[in-house]
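Repro:
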Amino acid sequence: MTPQHLAQLLREGEGLMVEFKRAREGLNRDLYETICAFLNQRGGTLVLGAADDGTVTGISPEALAQMRKDLANTLHNPQKINPPMPLVPEPVVLDGQTLLVLSVPESSQVHSCNNRIFSRNEDGDFDITGHGQLLAELYLRKQVGYSENRIFPHIRLSDLRSDLIERVRRNVRLQRAAHPWAELDDLDLLKSARLYQRDYQTGAEGVSMAGALLFGQDDVVLGVVPHHRTDAIVRVHDLDRYDDRDDIRTNLLESYDRLMAFVSRHIADPFHLLGNQRISLRDLIFREVVANLLIHREYLNPFPAKLIIQRDRVITENSNNPHGLGLLRPDDFAPSPKNPAIARVFREMQWAEELGSGVRNLFKLARAFGGQDPIMREEAIFRVTVMLPPGPQAGAPAAQAESGAESGAESGAESLQQRLLVALAAMPLSKAELARHLGLTTVSGALNRLVRRMLDAGLIEYTLPTKPNSRLQQYRLTAAGRAHLNLQDYPP
C-alpha cells in the first residue's frame, strides 16, 4: 500500500471493512477478533499505529520487528485462528511514523478466534458463537459463494490417492517436523485442511470439491468437474496450431508437476546471480505463475485454463470470480484468495507464497528475467503475462539442459542441481522421476554423473544405502542438501 493510499484511508475513517488500532508498543488483545470477523465477512484492512479517529500514532521502532513476528506466528497457530490464515503485514511510513497494514481477505471458510466465531457490522466485531440463525446463515453463504467448499458425500477415501496425501504429509514433515499434518491419518489430515467438511444446511458431510481436485483419482476429478482441463501450449513456429502441447486432466498436484516440467522443457534459464549465489529466475517465477493458475480458478466455469509459451512472452488464462476489475499492481492491491483451502495446501508444500507476497515477488523477479513488469489483469478471465528474455526459447531448454550437463559447465550444472534439489524437497524420487523433472525422456549419462556428484557432495543420499543398485532405489535430501537449497531461496 502506498503512503498516499494509506493517508486517504485514514481520512475516510473506520467502517465495515476498515479498522484502526493504536498498537504503539504491542499488539492489541482484540486484534485477532477483528481479523476473524474480517475473514468471516467481506474482508477488510487493519491499520496498526492509528487512533480511532485516524490520527497517526505510529509503532515504536523497538517494538516493530517483534510485533511483525508475533502477528505472523499467531496467524499460523490454529489454537488462535482456526483454520489458520497466514497473512503478511506490510510496513508503511507516513508522517515520519511506521504503521503496519494488514489486508485481510474474505475467506471461503468459517474461522474462529479462541474457539469463538466473530462477525462484523458497522459498529465493529461481535461474537455470534451462540446465535444459531446467524451461524447457519454464515455457513450457508460460504458454501454458496465458494465452489471449492461443495461437499460430495459419496466420495470415499478409497476414491482418493493415498500416495498424494502421503506426499503432502512427507513434504510438510520435511519443512517442519512438528507440523500438525505430519502424523495425522488420511481422514484427519483432510479434516484439518478443511478438505472434508459438513454442510450445516443439509447435515451432509464428506470430501469437498477442493479435496477431490487435490487428491482424487482421475475419474473422480473429472466426475466432480467434468470440464477440468489445463492446456499447456508452445506456439512459436506454428502460430495457427502449436509446436508442442500437454493436455492436462488430472489432480492439481500432478498438474503442477507437469506444468513445471513443460516450462523447464521450453523456456531457457539464463544465468543469474544474487550476491554470489546462482538462482533460477525461471523456476522461481513460474512456480508462482503455475501455482496462481491452479489456485485462483473458478472450477465451475468450463473455460479451460491455459499456459501459452510464445516467442517473447508467456500468457496464462483461467476462469475467475473477480473481486475487482483491472490491472493489479504490487503497491496498490488487496489480495483475495479464490480457493483458500487449495491455496493452503500449496503454501504448506511451499509451492506458493503467503497471500500478497507472491505478487510482489513476481514483479521483482520478472523485471530481472524479461526486463519488464508482468501484466496481471483481473476480469472474468484472469490473465498473467510474463516477458521472456531475448534469445531462443521454445525447443531449446531440453537440449540445453542435456548439453549443459554433458559439458559440466558451471551455470548449467548448478541449474540442474538446483532443480533436482527442489524436486527432492517434496519427497524421495527415483532416477527416472528425476529425469522427468528435468524434461528428459530417459535417464542419461549426464544425469547419472550429476546424481553421483550430488551424492559425493553429501547433498542427497540413498533411501536404500545397502542396495545402491536396487530397482527400488530412490534419493532424498540430506540436512546439508536442505541447507544448500534454503540458501538459494530468493529473499522476500
